[in-house]
Amino acid sequence: MKHVLMGVARNEDFASFDRELELSLPELTLIMGWSEDNDCLYDYLLTEQQISELQKYCSFELPSNLDLYLTCNSSNPV
Fold it and tell me: Could you tell me if residue 31 is inside a domain?
């Protein structure tokens, strides 16, 4: 399972930014405030606080002009 940050310009339908995260599930759980095992499988529009925490953990700056989403790619490679 891989988690990806995606950025979408306001009033647009397609992502113009994406970046795979190298964080562990426990780290993401802490940042996102997940309480159920399946919470990691959904897509989330990130809050300012979550974006700030992700930037700290990942040591890179995220675009501020996009709506940022955390998505999960749970497909297994063939």
Answer: yes
- Taking only the tens place, the pLDDT of each residue in 10-69 is 889 999 999 999 999 999 999 999 999 999 999 999 999 999 999 998 888 899 999 999
Q: Is the pTM of this model over 0.90?
A: no
Distance of alpha carbon 15 from alpha carbon 47, whole angstroms: 17
CATH of the domain at 65: 3.10.50
Residue ranges making up the domain that contains 18: 2-73
Work out how many domains the chain is built from and give that number.
Answer: 1
With tokens 């499988």, the residue in question is: 41
